[in-house]
Amino acid sequence: MCFEGDVDTKIKIDNKVKNVKTVWLEGNQVKMINQSKLPYMFEIFTSNSALETIEAIKQMIVRGAPAIGCSAAYAIVQAALEIETNIDLFWAHIEEVAELLRNSRPTGKNLSFAIDRVLKKMREGKNIKECRRLAIEEAELIAKEDIEFCRKIGEHGKDLIKSGDNVLVHCNPGALGTIEYGTALAIIRFAYHHDGKEIFVYVNETRPKCQGSRLTAWELIQEEIPFVIIADNTAGHFMKNGKIDLVIVGADRIAKNGDTANKIGTYSLAVLAKENKIPFYVAAPSSTFDLGCDSGLQIPIENRSEDEIKYFSGLDEEGVLRKIKIGPEEAKYLNPAFDITPAEYITAFITEKGIKILSDTLP
Predict the structure, then answer these.
(1) In whole angstroms, what is the distance from residue 118 CA to residue 140 CA?
(2) Which tens digits make up the pLDDT trace of 163-220?
(3) Rg value, the chain, Cα
(4) Can you tell me the distance from the alpha carbon of 121 to that of 125, in angstroms, rounded to the nearest whole number?
(5) What residues are labeled active site?
(6) Which CATH superfamily is domain 3-151 in?
(7) CA pair distance 170, 188, nearest whole angstrom
(8) Mind listing the pLDDT tens digit for each residue in 121-139?
(9) Helices within 242-306 (DSSP H only)
(10) CA separation for the pair 154, 189 (Å, rounded)
(11) Domain range list for the chain
């Protein structure tokens, strides 16, 4: 979380500012901010094995396409450190872990991008020791690039926001979804802290996991950027009544033709934005683009547990974290985690390489 214009990741804990990345490698352990506990408590989750890191990805302890990609790279490193002597067993274990990772959250492109990069680099090694060294170097390079790419996204995109603008964001396109900075929130951070623009942020709660009201809101509090949380189904109301000047979202996979997979509800926002002549921007690093995928029809959509809709978690009046049922036991539930926004609804892409304009819906 780039606090007050600094380049380091910073958060406030007990009124003290500390440097914490979203995920990092420490020996054979992967450390990550436990996003399932936010905003109620700040906790670092420690994964001691590749399988634990895979489970952390599946359970959304770590989430966000770039952060998942970096976590996957680190999981390959863990797998490489788990086999000592036999080269055949070594590679069999690596391939097994890689396959489990690919299936853990299949929609995001960054996941397979990171896995493929680390495996390709490892194959240059002549023995287990060399393979391990190359895996660590490549995983750390991926994380370093993610930080730099997100910083550039913020720098490129900040000029799209004018002082006085109200910006709508969906899900958590912030530092928690990357290693540092974030994607859409990087743009807001740079516009607000670096350029000193007056900005107000509308935060979609983003049901059913509420990544907006839990995570994006938490980040904006750290940054002291003014915001309000709104229910997902009120976005059209605020657009129609002139309260939203632009929408910026992240992405999990972008097809060759520009069709974009992002958190469920993004498509609806894009349609509403176009109807109300509001610019709709997608901010993502180049690692999110899948040039082997011709259109959104080829993007796999992850379906998650019905319990995410059936139950809701939060603090009760006594400050106790509880899980409560909000739907009938007998009912059936459908829980697609992502939807596809056709390129025709997207005004422009913002990447580390600059801004790619797709339509004339500009401010």
Answers:
(1) 10
(2) 999 999 999 999 999 999 999 999 999 999 999 999 999 999 999 999 999 999 999 9
(3) 20
(4) 8
(5) 252
(6) translation initiation factor eif-2b, domain 1 (1.20.120.420)
(7) 13
(8) 999 999 999 999 999 999 9
(9) 266-275
(10) 7
(11) 3-151, 158-357
The answer to whether the CB of 110 falls within 8 A of the CB of 96 is: no
Class of domain 158-357: alpha beta
Start-to-end CA span in the chain (Å): 27
In 68-156, DSSP assigns E strands to: none
**Strand pairing class (280-283; 348-351):** parallel
> What residue ranges in the chain does DSSP mark as E strands?
10-13, 16-19, 23-26, 29-33, 44-47, 166-169, 200-204, 227-230, 246-249, 253-255, 260-263, 280-283, 289-290, 311-315, 321-325, 338-341, 348-351, 354-357
* C-beta separation of 189 from 176 below 8 A: no
Render the burial of 129-145: b for 16+ CB within 10 Å, e for the rest: eebbebbbebbbebbeb
Sign of CA dihedral 231, 64, 66, 180: positive
Residue with token string 């180049």: 286
Structure tokens at 355: 């801004």
